[in-house]
Amino acid sequence: MLKKKYRVRTLLITLTVGSAILISTLLMSSIIIYQNKNMEREILERNLAYALKITDTFNQYLRLAQLEIDAYADAVRNVNNKKQLNFELEKINNRKILFNSVEIEQDIDRNLHESYRKLNFNDEKYQTNLIERNVGGSNYHTNILYSPVLNYYIISISKPFLNGKESYEKKIVGNIFLNKENIFSYLIPTEKLKNEISIEILYPPEENILGTRDFSLGDQFLSNKKNKENLRENEFGSFSTKIEGRNYLVGFSSKNEMGFIFLVSSQSESFSGKLISIAKEFYIFYLTIITTLAVLTIFLSQKIAKPLECIALYADDECSKIDSLEFVKTQYAEAEVIRKSLLSYVSSMADKVEYLEGEVMTDPLTNLYNRRGFYFHSKYYQEINLHSVLYLDIDYFKKINDTYGHNTGDAVLCTIAIVLKKNFRKEDILSRFGGEEFAFLLPRTSAKNAVNMAKKTLKMISTTEFPHREKVTVSAGVSIVSEKTKGLEKALIKADKALYLSKKNGRNLVTFLE
Q1: b/e sequence 166-190, b meaning 16+ C-beta within 10 Å
Q2: In degrees rounded to 5, what are phi and psi of residue 258?
Q3: Regarding beta strands 510-512 and 474-481, do their DSSP bridges make them parallel or antiparallel, or are they unpaired?
Q4: Fewer beta carbons below 10 Å: N end or C end of the chain?
Q5: pLDDT tens-digit profile of 50-85?
């Protein structure tokens, strides 16, 4: 029974730990899904804010570039000497800030810059007139040029000016190479952000003119009808798209005077992967704690349960050594209280059982064993062949009751019981079978000794003073338990016959039948 209970306890611990792991797994999954959606929303908002910031910074840089080219135009406006003009141009190139190069074009209709000549470019190797807009007023011209040889775009900002006394216009041109290092290139910090955030500059219809990806999100962006409509209606916004099986979260802005579209994008999988990775680390840590707590719980439960199990074991009905409870190590106060209470309860119950057994097996008048008590205690001597049985019967007991009353008869019985207890040994089993008849078992006693003890008893009774002041005698029959008599019951029958012979032969006699 106890083992089944232990298995239930172990099962409960297992179910508790398993439920904790399952609940934590479901909770973790829910948190990941919820947090992933929140992160995607936050990333879209962040990428949009980044796109707007880049756009605003680009616009400020462009205005600074216009102011810078305006200052250079003022510096060379009154220079008439060609040598002096070249000297001023060299000074400008040495102190330029936003531009990669600054040139002076002599012919306003010609867009071939001196910087290209120095790189030995031919007219066929570059394209011009992609864009020509008046940015910041009629005095400025901004062109987007593309060099197939260098494979990058150039922002060209020019300002016409009349050179001194000459009658034709000249213009000073500042070139910003988008793939070269300059202030504009810092808008796209490719090395730091390429693994998490990608930035692209789009210019319709040429699309991607600068970016940090091997492929362009701009193709996807500009080919989508909804995005085109969104772009016409809004100068900024965000969207998500899927390219080559990967999800991208994109923020865009076109709030600039050049007509550029700035895209800032992130792979949603990369952030999901990081979130899952963090969750895995936390989950492993959580499982470690759960496992540790489970082991600790099992250990503590064993410590708590062991004293109770010992107490339960010794309290089992099959356990006869209840005194062993004294040696159980309880280890904690509650178990000690249970142990003491159980020990006290068992002792009390043992006393009550002993008392009840005495009540059931004892004659209430003489305090000798009754017939039940006689047979119960005699069974311990069934294996012994050397013992005798003795029957006693009070002579003329009915006459005493009739003459002096039953109270006197009871007093006679009690007096005889006292004499018997004094005359026989402690191990002898003395009983009142009923009425005035007594039966004794004398363990390890021969027939001769039994007869002598019976004669001595008869003599003591005959000389005893009784309440009614008259002499009382008893008759006795003796027999032995042997292989020949075949057990206690037959020995009792023979003793009863011997008693009958004693009464027949004159009473106050002892008769032995083998």
Answers
A1: eeeebbbbbbbbbeeebebbebbee
A2: -90, -15
A3: parallel
A4: N
A5: 889 888 888 888 888 888 988 888 888 777 777 888
Q: Is-contact 276 64, C-beta < 8 A?
A: no
Q: Which residues contact 356 (CB under 8 A, 6 or more apart)?
A: none
What are the pLDDT digits (tens) for 199-216?
887 776 555 666 555 556
| Cis ω before 204 (30° cut-off from 0) | no
Rounded CA-CA distance 232/251 in Å is 15
Catalytic residue from among 68, 200, 207, 436:
436
Angle, alpha carbons 458-463-469 (nearest 5°): 120
Please provide the size of the chain in residues: 514
Catalytic residue list contains 436: yes
Q: Name the one residue in this structure whose structure tokens are 């496992």.
A: 291
- Report whether 441 contacts 389 (CB < 8 A): yes
Torsion angle (degrees, nearest 10) of CA 467, 469, 473, 474? -10
Question: Using an 8 Å Cβ cutoff, are 325 and 311 in contact?
Answer: yes
pTM score > 0.70 for this model? no
Query: What tokens were used for 477?
Result: 């029959």
Q: Cα separation of 495 and 310, whole Å?
A: 52
Which candidate, 392, 390, 403, places its Cα nearest to that of 466? 403
Q: Whole-angstrom Cα distance, residue 340 to residue 327? A: 11
